[in-house]
Amino acid sequence: MSQQPPEPYQSMSSYDESAKTHALIAYGLMVAGLFTGICFVIGLVWAMLKKDDARDSVFFDHYQNIISTFLWALGLWIIGSILAWVFFGWFILLGVWLWAIYRLLKGLARITANQSYR
Q1: pLDDT at residue 3, as a whole number
Q2: Would you say 29 and 40 are in contact if contact means Cβ atoms under 8 Å apart?
Q3: Rounded to an integer, what is the distance from CA 63 to the centroid of its chain?
Q4: Mean pLDDT by 10 residues, the chain (118 residues)
Q5: Sign, CA torsion 49/54/65/25
Q6: Cα–Cα dist 45/49, whole Å
Q7: Burial annotation 28-41 (CB, 10 A radius, 16+ → b, else e)
Q8: Residues 10, 82: Cα–Cα separation, whole Å
């Protein structure tokens, strides 16, 4: 039985490496922001500032994921906060937190595998 040689490593351009690095920084800030709050906003700002630099990169949709995750989480957090005086709002807040964790971990898993978000 013969073994097949391993597939050659596909190197990325410095442009893609830079886009990946900045997306990883934004993801890291967003994950820290799940526990601190302010880092969530800093992660958004970082992604928005670096998004245009990654326009033609395979990692561009990670920036879109970070931004849309923030915007949806913010909107749902506002609704949950308003409804928190009615016990149901706490379930919304918990759901938003879990959903954000899922989206960020999925993004981190895919970007570390050098894949686009979708």
Answers
A1: 58
A2: yes
A3: 7
A4: 50 84 94 91 94 89 94 94 90 95 95 89
A5: negative
A6: 6
A7: ebbbebeeeeebbe
A8: 49
State the first-to-last Cα distance of the chain, in angstroms, to the nearest integer.
37
- 21 token code pair: 């690095």
Residue boundaries of the structural domains of the chain: 14-112
Cβ-based neighbours of 118, under 8 Å, separated by 6 or more: 61
Tell me the one-letter amino acid at 45: V
- Two tokens, residue 66: 């970070």
- The predicted pLDDT at position 12 comes to 74
H-helix or E-strand containing 35? helix 14-36
Type and span of the H or E element at 105: helix 88-112
CA–chain centroid gap for 110, Å, is 10
pTM of the predicted protein model: 0.83
- Give me the pLDDT at residue 9, please: 42
Alpha helix ranges (H) inside 37-59: 38-50
